[in-house]
Design brief:
The chain has about 325 residues and is of the alpha/beta class. The chain contains 14 helices and 8 strands. Strands 1, 2, 3, 4, 5, 6, 7 and 8 form an 8-stranded mixed beta sheet that branches. The chain is globular, with a radius of gyration of 21 Å.
Length: about 325
């Protein structure tokens, strides 16, 4: 958990919350001198809380994973960049309309090597969430991404994308400025890059808004992230005209990292700390760094045409596999 922030508990974490609240109460009593030594009791309760947390997170339902993926204290794009990228220089604007803060894009160094980093930023408090539009990008965001991807390709710089969005922004202005075309163009450019590309789905990977940045040589996904064509609430609204059935929709949609790796949609699952990435963001970011380094290492040394060909074959094979499953 980020320093200076109070822990936010999800509804299903109530048993753990109660145990940890009792631990904090006993600690306060001990520090004030109002109680005899309670060290043994604190240790006992901490053990119970840790075990309860471990057991709870070992059996999360898809809907619970969706809640974890949306946790406000989960590390976001800017947190990940700050933890992994040295000398990051953000670039702004699409050279056509304006800048979109929902997409963060720039260049820096990852473990000594130059990289281009592009990602969705949701924001961490009310002010930043409004500034970044909750990570829901407009056309100029995707066109900014295209501009930087083409620059990275021109200078032979690998690409890292960090996906965390409920979906592209559906507003009238965005549609008037060509939202669908911008998403399609970004996806097409991702697919045609001749430099290695690695995507990490940090929290939500929603619809075409995610795919526009996630058509990569290697697609990684945090253990409790979700990846879907539509949100569970949206699917429930369409299928049953009842958003209260979001839990049922989440189960049927197969949106978890474990589902995605089983279907061959992603390449690997990045393990999160016990209790989710929001419990220990720094440890989660370190795990992301290792996974990205391994993925880039697998692609290092390949010629540009091979990189492009392997990416294309990867997604064509995915389509064939999905066709077999549907059949």
């Amino acid at each position: 958990m980020l320093a200076g922030t109070m822990r936010t508990y999800l509804d299903f974490e109530k048993p753990v919350a109660e145990l940890e609240a009792k631990v904090e109460e006993l600690r306060a009593m001990a520090e004030s001198g109002d109680a005899v030594s309670v060290g043994d009791e604190i240790n006992k309760l901490e053990g119970k809380a840790a075990l309860a947390l471990k057991e709870l997170y070992a059996e999360l339902t898809p809907w619970q994973k969706a809640q974890v993926a949306r946790h406000p204290q989960r590390p976001h794009c800017l947190d990940t960049i700050a933890g992994l990228i040295d000398g990051f220089i953000p670039l702004a604007g699409d050279r056509k309309f304006g800048d979109d803060p929902a997409i963060v894009a720039g260049f820096g160094r990852f473990r000594g090597d130059s990289v281009c980093v592009i990602g969705h930023e949701k924001g961490s408090d009310t002010e930043s969430r409004l500034k970044h539009n909750f990570g829901m990008a407009r056309p100029e965001g995707y066109r900014k991404a295209v501009r930087l991807m083409e620059m990275a390709d021109r200078f032979n710089i690998p690409l890292i994308t960090l996906v965390d969005t409920a979906g592209a922004y559906p507003g009238i202005g965005a549609e008037e400025r060509g939202q669908a075309e911008a998403i399609a163009r970004s996806t097409d450019v991702c697919l045609g890059l001749s430099v290695p590309s690695v995507t990490v789905i940090l929290g939500e990977g929603g619809s075409g808004g995610a795919i526009a940045l996630a058509t990569a040589n290697r697609v990684l996904m945090l253990e409790h992230a979700i990846y879907s064509v539509i949100s569970p609430e949206g699917a429930a609204s369409i299928l049953w005209r009842d958003t209260a059935k979001a839990q049922e929709a989440a189960t049927n949609m197969k949106i978890t990292a474990q589902d995605m790796v089983r279907f061959g949609v992603i390449d690997a699952v990045v393990t999160e700390p016990v209790g989710g990435a929001h419990r220990d963001p720094q440890a989660a970011i370190a795990s992301i760094g290792e996974a990205v380094a391994n993925a880039l290492g697998e692609l290092r040394g390949l010629d540009r045409e091979t990189v492009r060909k392997l990416r294309r074959e990867k997604f064509l094979a995915m389509g064939r596999n999905m066709g077999k499953l549907a059949g």
